[in-house]
Amino acid sequence: MELFLLAVGTIIIGVFGCVLWFWGSNFVLDSIYPPRGPNAGENIRRASTIRPWLFLGPAILFLGVYLVYPVVNSLWLSLLNGSSTRFIGVDNYTWLVGDSKFQESMINNFFWLLIVPALSTLFGLIAAQLTDRIRWGNIGKSLIFMPMAISFVGAGVIWKLIYEYREPGAEQIGLLNAIVQALGGDPQTWLTLQPWNNFFLMIVLVWIQTGFAMVILSAALRGIPEETIEAAVLDGASHWQIFFKIKVPQIMGTIAVVWTTITITVLKVFDIVFVMTNGQWGTQVLANLMYDWMFRGTPDYGRGSAIAIVLMVLVLPIMIWNIRNVRKEMR
Amino acid sequence: MEGMAGQKSSLTWAVNIAALLLVILWTIPTAGLLVSSFRDRDQISATGWWKSMVAQEQTGFVRTGGADDQVQDGDLYVLEGSLVEEGQTLAAWGTSSRDPGAFAPGDSTEVDGATLSVAENGGYRLESTVPFEMRRGERIFVVTESPPSFTTENYSRVLNAEGIGRAFMNTMTVTIPATVIPILIAAFAAYALAWMEFPGRALLTAAVVGLLVVPLQVSLIPLLRLHNEIGLGKGYVGIWLAHTGFGLPLAVYLLRNYMAGLPREVIESARVDGATEFQIFRKIILPLSFPALASFAIFQFLWVWNDLLVATVFLGNTREQLVMTGVLRELMGSRGGDWEILATSAFISIAVPLLVFFAMQKYLVRGLLAGSVKGG
User: How far is A291 from chain B, CA to nearest CA, in Å?
Assistant: First the structure.
């Protein structure tokens, strides 16, 4: 109950504080430069050069402190030793390159990047195409989209139940092993089965991301001008030809957007690995490795930051690509 | 032409079946968890959840009473009892482990000179003309059928005992301010970026887009140290601030895109009428932007509610402070095999996001499209 009051109190204080800031600062500005009287024109001009910064102030402060400063600071910390007391140059990075866990993480991350966006986009495209053509399509869409709302941890529990293992011959309570056993195979402990266990973790993310891909691709498919499809039908194109040669090329831009968005999610994937294997049995990934170095007995901030910077460098191309796209659009 | 029509309908069938398959494939994992959370502990570990809908056959044995339990009925010595528990029905029974289902209910047989008869309702009667002398009873093998049974006991147990109730409140406490505050801050910033003229506007917009993809991991160490240095430490205020910062780029970006698309005439005419920027924002922009505000609110709500990383770093790890994802993670470690507890806790933690999702799906889709499809 106390907690509840604290939360309500914070909302009120937070919201009230924001409103007070915006309203108050604007009020002050308007009284210093009143938009009437002898100097009205000059005052309005002056006020309108200051006002945008009042509106933007809190946002810039937050973005600066919580996103820009950490990037710069991480870069600096990655050049210091574990307790950030001594400058050691690029030692953390040379250590990283030689570390077997880091190499394992890089290889795993590479496969995650290869497989998850590809499968999610593919399934998303199939789901979009199928659900757009049937009467109960909207219900189908919501159900495929639903995993989006489930936390990675929740998804971890859900899929752990599917991968659950019992002795061969025993009654299997995990769906996957039950199917394998019914088909005459031997049940496996999927999450320790190297190197395939990585793939079983990836499936969880594919399951979550497919809905996202489907929603966006379905909107793009609907946006294709009817004429191009009609022309193809008149020319006698088959369904497959229409789909692959007419529709897919026209939504290539959207496919690229979906692909890169999922790529970013994949790079940051942490919870799934953390709760299902915690990087054991050859499933380590960068995000989890970074967490490891940050929270082991005595945290090593230097190495942790170095891994974070590697992640940052990996998303950099996407960041630049995004910025260029947006600037092109704004022009 | 007939061939064409036939082909068309068979294609429709194929599409329907393929779509159905896909939907089933995507729904089954969650359905499994939901069903499991309503089963009792023994059943979960005995059979797969997909078998919970049908009656379950189990084989076991029951021991009759021993010599001490016999009663005299005329000149017969009798042992009586039941082979089934409440709720079960008897499918078959037997006297040897090699063939536990040898007899049907209602049959009788000879056991060591005594007559054993089993009634339809599972009651047995062992009668003999000489007194029984065995100390331990005879074994009777039974094949029983339990009807599908579901229970809400797991839920009451988990909510009270496993700290999930407390964690639910903690999650609420984290989520609501962390959703409301960034919306306010972002709305003002987005309005400035969309409708005010000032030098550096394009640069700032580009910066927001760039910050959209900054990996959270980069922020963890510097911010943890910063929070410790300024005395904020680990606690709710810290996590609210952190989530506000992390949510802002998407909020500003979504809202700016939406506001930039509002009709210019409305805003211009309000300016001509002498409305101040603050009035325009509050009376025109905010109400018109409701769909975009709702979209972002849902995103941020889902993201904060489902987050594990930020909560583990910026909030303490004691029982009193854990959020639901944190508790769930702990349970996965400590009670990995107790599926009734895991499934139920997981379902409690995903119930609220699922509700929000189904109720406000329209806004979620709209937000996704505004954020991802160029010009959409």
Answer: 8
Looking at per-residue confidence, does A251 or B48 come out higher? A251
Q: Is the predicted pLDDT of residue B7 greater than 70, yes or no? A: no
- Nearest by CB to residue A146, choosing from B181, B249, B357, is B357
Q: Per residue in B126-174, pLDDT tens? A: 888 888 777 777 788 888 777 777 788 888 888 877 678 888 888 888 8
- Dist. CA A12–CA B171, nearest whole Å: 18
Q: Answer whether B254 touches A (CB < 8 Å).
A: no
pLDDT digits (tens, 9 = 90+) for A265-324: 888 888 888 888 887 888 889 888 888 888 777 788 888 899 999 989 988 888 888 888
Please report the pLDDT score of residue B2 as a whole number.
39
Please report the residues numbered 159 through 198 in chain B whose beta carbons come closer than 8 angstroms to any beta carbon of chain A.
Answer: 169-170, 172-173, 176-177, 180-181, 184-186, 188-189, 191-193, 196-198
Backbone angles phi and psi of B75, in degrees to 5: -105, 15
DSSP state of B283: I
Residue B370 CB: number of other CB atoms within 10 A? Answer: 19
Query: What is the SS3 string spanning chain A?
Result: CHHHHHHHHHHHHHHHHHHHHHHHHHHHHHHHCCCCCCCHHHHHHHHHHHHHHHHHHHHHHHHHHHHHHHHHHHHHHCCECCCCCCECCCHHHHHHHHCHHHHHHHHHHHHHHHHHHHHHHHHHHHHHHHHCCCCCHHHHHHHHHHHHHCCHHHHHHHHHHHHCCCCCCCCCCCHHHHHHHHCCCCCCCHHHCCCHHHHHHHHHHHHHHHHHHHHHHHHHHHCCCHHHHHHHHHCCCCHHHHHHHHHHHHCHHHHHHHHHHHHHHHHCCCHHHHHHCCCCCCCCCHHHHHHHHHHCCCCCHHHHHHHHHHHHHHHHHHHHHHHHHHHHHHC
Question: Among partner residues B170, B248, B364, which is closest to A62 by beta-carbon distance?
Answer: B248
- Structure tokens of B168? 């639910």
Residues of A in contact with B219 (CB under 8 A): 66-67, 70-71, 74
Please check the confidence at residue B3 and state whether its pLDDT lies above 60. Answer: no
What radius of gyration do chain A's Cα atoms show? 27
Reported ipTM: 0.86
- For the stretch A189-225, pLDDT in tens is 888 888 888 899 999 999 999 988 998 888 888 888 8
pTM (two decimals)? 0.83
Contact residues on chain A for B33, CB-CB shorter than 8 A: 157-158, 161
Assigned token pair, A87: 């400058």
User: Which of A255, A97, A35, A320 minimizes the C-alpha distance to B275?
Assistant: A35
Q: Report how far residue A205's alpha carbon sits from residue A127's, in angstroms, rounded to the nearest whole number.
A: 16
Q: How far is CA B321 from the centre of its chain?
A: 21
Specify the 3-state DSSP secondary structure of B80.
Answer: strand
> pLDDT band at residue B4, thresholds of 50, 70 and 90?
very low
Gap between the Cα atoms of A173 and B43, Å rounded: 10
Asked if B351 has any chain A CB less than 8 Å from its own CB, the reply is no
Mean pLDDT over residues A160-165, rounded?
88
According to DSSP, the residues that pair with B117 across neighbouring strands are B108, B125
Give pLDDT, residue B33. Answer: 87
Q: How far apart are CA A12 and CA A4, in angstroms?
A: 12
